[in-house]
Structures are given as C-alpha cells and as structure tokens.
Amino acid sequence: MTSSYGSRPRHLPNSPFKPRVEPEVEVFEIGDRVSHDLYGVGKVIAVDSHAVTVDFGSQTVRVKPPYAKMQHL
C-alpha cells in the first residue's frame, strides 16, 4: 500500500515504535582515499549523482550510495 508521502506509510505520533532513521550518505570527492570492506584500499576517480567510481588497483568499481561498506581514510 502506498501513500501520498511515498512508498512508506506515515508514522503516527502516538505509535510505540520509533520512526525509521534515514541513513546518512557520505560525500566523496575525486582524489579521496577510501577503504572498502570487499575491495580494500582505493582512490576515488569519478563522482556523479548516482555513484562513486573507485580505482582499487586491480579493478575499477562503481559503488552506489549509501556506501555502507566504504569509509574515508
């Protein structure tokens, strides 16, 4: 069931459950050094509105938000 608020139902103020917290999306810039849980250490080579392209040496990977497995170094 979809509502006028989007794909999630509206959170009622008297609900005993806490509203779902939106994940905070990190901001990466070209040249940033990053660490990824699967691919290791790499360098950001391209940034667009839908993903970040990272060169990990042996391969280049396009990582989509919310970047849960990638951190700044």
**DSSP helix count?**
0
**Average pLDDT score:** 85
**Helix content bin:** under 10%
Number-wise, the strands total 5
Q: How does the helix and strand content classify structurally?
A: mainly beta
**H/E element order:** EEEEE
Biggest pleated sheet: 5 strands, antiparallel
Question: What do these coordinates show?
Answer:
With 73 residues, the chain is mostly beta strands. The protein has a domain of 35 residues. Helix content is 0%, strand content 32%. The chain contains no helices and five strands. The protein has a five-stranded antiparallel β-sheet, with no helix packed on it.
Kindly summarize this structure in a few lines.
It is built from no helices and 5 strands. The protein is mainly β and 73 residues long.
What attributes does this structure have?
mainly beta; 73 residues; five-stranded antiparallel sheet
Task: Outline the fold blueprint.
Elements: E1 33-36, E2 40-47, E3 52-55, E4 60-63, E5 70-72
Antiparallel strand pairs: 1-2, 1-5, 2-3, 3-4
